[in-house]
Structures are given as structure tokens and as C-alpha cells.
Amino acid sequence: MLSTYSLSGATLVTPERIIRDGRVKIEKNRVKSLTDGSKVDIQLQSGVYCYPALINVHDHLRGDYLPRIGPQNGDYYLNWSYWERDLRNSPVLVERAKISVEQMYLLSAYKNLFSGVVTVNDHFPHEFNEPLIPLLPVRVINSYTLAHECSSFDLNWGDGIEIEHRRAVERGHPFITHLEEGFDAESQSGVDILENLNCLDEHDVLIHCIGFSDSDIRRVQAAGASVAWCPASNMFMFNVTCKIRKMIAQGVNVCIGTDSTATGSVNLFEEIRFAREVYRSMYGEELDAETLLRMVTIHPAKAFWMQDKIGTVEEGKYADLLFIRPREDDPYEALVSARMEDIELIIQEGTPIYGDGKFEELFHRRNCDYTTVQVRGRRMCVKGDPAGLLERIRRAVGFNKVLDYLPFGE
Question: Pairing relation of β-strands 175-179 and 204-208?
């Protein structure tokens, strides 16, 4: 297997700095250098931009099916439990039950992959996903502890808030939970609950947080906790999202997540753009593109306690790289405007997992098990067999199912 090679000619958006006409030397699974080349040097098309592969801080990999399930007739939910009721009574769930759990996880993995994501959290207990994670074409983190959420509406995942949080501290892992996802008094007491249990600290990754008061925001920032912002899901279910401008101004480590497609955006590219639209609608000003990029790279790497491995293009870190053909000249705006069809190449730990057919030799030489698909007239190589997966799903459900996050599935 090819162990050392370099990629030259792209603009590197690290994202701490921008390096024009850069060169990334990869040795085994890590970035060896941003200055040196190697014997095998792959010249990239002029104008290509290189980013750290994206990180989706929050998803439910059993739930990435379509169409969405939500409130009817312009209504909204009081808290998440009302959505759970509608899910259980939905014909979408009946249809989804015709495919296997393994197929659902594969679909979800490709949803993420086709929007530049290499690392994602599946917010389910370990016993749900551990047998499936090794089968997936992207990295699903398995170093975490969790609670479903901090209220009586909790689904009782894990061994309880205090035990799960203590494990996170002992192991240096994130403790991940939905928090204040609703408007009732109990839902809006989430920060108080964590604080009273001595479980509010830098290990926490708090999802949604739409009920946060100004005091909650200050306490979360002081504790060093992270927030997973899922604006599309929030607006769809509740017609409101968190106080995002105050969180950013206060210095909270905010990350963007998709939630599942049952309520959220079809992929992370769409979620990034929706986040900017919501911010503009709420505050009459732009959320700058560099901040958005950090919310899907540096910030979630910190939230997952993986900042020494992922989140930037940097010597010694995993060679997790996203190359796109930009729609905008500004490197930060180019990422915000990116679509699935703009991806040139994605590399995970030095091995290509999705890319233009012109990189097929690299797929061969890094021993990637891949197939090819057509995306907007381009022949693309992809790890695994997503086209075959889609065909099997169509046979199972009995019609020509279209899933918007598969770029070849129209």
C-alpha cells in the first residue's frame, strides 16, 4: 500500500490560516508536512480549496430517513416528547421498518460523507451502534458517555446522568445529552439539573438548548461546556432556535449539527447555509463564514476531546481532508456555499473515501474498497457501494425511493 504521498496546488484553509498553492504531505494516516513534497505528488486542479474534513456534532444514524416528521398545520411542539408520539404513529416509520438497521446506518453514513463529513456522533447508546460502526465508510465516534436528556421525558439511555458524567471525566470523554429542548418548566430547568448534580463542566456537549436563559448561557460558558446547535430541526419542531448570537458573544463553544433528517436538514452543507439564514432572519446581520467553518471543524473537535487528532489541517493530526471546487473566491465563503456536487476529494486518515474518478489510482494504491457512481455527469469513486445500497432499499420498500442526501439517487 502507498504509505507516503503529497497533494499539491490547492489553497489550504487550515482554518487558522490560509496557504495559497499549498502542499500536504501525508505519511500513513497523518499529515506529515505542509511544506514538503514526496516522490508521489498528486497535482490538484487549479483553484481547488482544501479544508479539514467536516465534523457533524449531532446526528441519529437510525433516523436519517425521509420525509421529515413534524407538527401539522403550522403548529409547534411543547417539548420533544410530542414529536416522539408523532414518530410512533407515522407511516414513514412503517416504511422505514422494511429496511434493516444496518442499511439505515449505511444510509446515514453516506448522508454525512456526501456533505464532506468524516467524523460524526451518533446519539444513541453504545449497545445500539457498536456492532455497526466498523461497517461504515466514515468515522463514528465511540469514545463518549451519554444521557438521552435531562428531564422526566428522558428515554433512560445509559446508567444515569451522574454515573455517565463521572465516566466521561475519568476517561477524558465527552458527556453528551439533549438539554432544554422545549418550553415547559421542566425542559427549561436543564442547566439547573446538571449544576445541582455537579455535572456541568467542560465534558458536556449540550444539544439544542432552545430554552436557555441568559443565566444559563453564562453558566455554560463558565463551565466550559459545548453546545450543539441544530437550527433546522429546532425551527421545524419548535419554530424557534437557541439564543445563538448571545452564545457566540459569550464565548460558548458552539458547534453545528444536523440532527437526523427526520427533523433536520438533509446534510451538513444544507445545515450550514440554513444556520446563516436563520441568524440573518433573527438579527438582521450576517453570521460570518469563518465562524461557521469553525463550528464544523475546530469547535466540535474540542467538544469531542479530539482536538489533538482532528479539526484542522496540521502536522501530526489525522489526514482528514476535504477538497472542493469553490463557488466563491473567499475561502471561508466557498465552504459555506458548497454543495454535494462541488466535492473534488475526501480523505480519511490518508485514504481516499470519495472523489473524482481521476483519483482512482490513489484509491487503488491506498487499498480502498470502492465503487463508482455518476454525480452531475462526473464519474466519482466512493468507498463501499451506496448505489447498490439504494437499489436494495428500493426493492425492500417496493418503489423508486428518492433520498435527497444521495447525489446520484435522483
Answer: parallel
**What letter represents residue 305's amino acid?**
W
d(CA 112, CA 379): 19
| Interaxial angle between packed helices 101-113 and 386-397, expressed in degrees from 0 to 180 and rounded to the nearest 10 | 130
- DSSP element (H, E) containing 303: helix 298-303
Cis upstream peptide for 67 (omega within 30°): yes
Continuous H helices in 118-157: 126-129
Tracing cell 465516566 back to the chain, one arrives at 167
**Is 4-52+322-385's fold the same as 55-303's?**
no
The amino acid sitting at 337 is S
Q: Model-level pTM? A: 0.98
Grid cell 458547534 is found at 255
What separation in angstroms does the CA of 115 have from each of 15, 106, 258, 303?
A: 18, 15, 11, 20
Dihedral through CA 233, CA 179, CA 110, CA 117, nearest 10? Answer: 100
Name the burial class of residue 138, with classes exposed (0-12), middle (13-18) and buried (19+) by CB atoms within 10 angstroms of its CB: buried
Q: What is the 3-state secondary structure (H, E, C) of 246-279?
A: HHHHHCCEEEECCCCCCCCCCCHHHHHHHHHHHH
Helix axes 231-238, 268-283, angle to 10 degrees: 60
DSSP one-letter string for 167-188: HHHHHT--EEEEE--BSSTTGG
Architecture of the structural domain at 55-303:
Alpha-Beta Barrel (3.20)
CATH 2.40.40.20 fits 4-52+322-385, yes or no: no
Grid coordinates belonging to 160: 444515569
Q: What tens digit of pLDDT does each residue of 355-368 get?
A: 999 999 999 999 99
Going by DSSP bridges, is the β-strand pair 30-33/18-27 parallel, antiparallel, or unpaired?
A: antiparallel
Q: Whole-angstrom Cα distance, residue 201 to residue 217?
A: 13
Query: Each residue of 118-152: pLDDT tens digit?
Result: 999 999 999 999 999 999 999 999 999 999 998 88
Domain positions in the chain are 4-52+322-385, 55-303
